[in-house]
Amino acid sequence: MNGLPITIRYAIKILIFLSLTAGHSISASELARLTRIPPSQVAKVLHVLRWGGLTRSRRGLHGGYELRMSPEEIHVEQVMKLFLPVGEEKQANAADDPFLQIWTETEARSQQEWKQLTIAELSRRMPEHAADWDKLPASEHS
Question: 26: how many CB neighbours lie within 10 A of its CB?
């Protein structure tokens, strides 16, 4: 994922961690600690994810953030669209530019893969040692 902007990588990582908390709310500060993402960036990303309908927040003693839908329903492409600027139409004609033609074809294939890849699939691929689950409050990883 190194080619993706850092904000998208942060968003995907946050969504993966939220999917692994099995529907329990988790605070922004805990997400920052667990994901090792700066707290200010976690706050910004959570704001966009909530605005985009992928997460929701709860106030109160057991408040925090959680997924709005199942991880199987959240596709990486949805996340990317929230954080990428709307692209301008390409000025050059692909028929006259072989590099642009190959680039366009490659981009289309990548978009198809992003449409199919879900947060659930990424969560299944996450190594067990990547999360400090022993440091999560007991109610958040039962």
Answer: 21
Report how far residue 91's alpha carbon sits from residue 93's, in angstroms, rounded to the nearest whole number.
7
* DSSP for 72-116, written as a single string: GG-BHHHHHHHHSPPPPPP-S-GGG-HHHHHHHHHHHHHHHHHHH
Domain annotation covers residue 104 = no
Q: What CATH number should be reported for the domain holding residue 75?
A: 1.10.10.10
Assess if residue 29 is contained within a domain.
yes
Work out how many domains the chain is built from and give that number. Answer: 1
Please count the residues of the chain: 142
Tens digits of pLDDT across the chain (142 residues): 456 789 999 999 999 999 988 778 999 999 999 899 999 999 999 999 999 999 999 888 778 999 999 999 999 889 988 987 665 444 445 556 666 666 667 766 777 777 788 888 888 877 665 555 444 443 343 3
* Residues sharing a CB contact under 8 Å with residue 57, sequence separation 6 or more, in sequence order: 25, 46, 50, 63, 64, 65
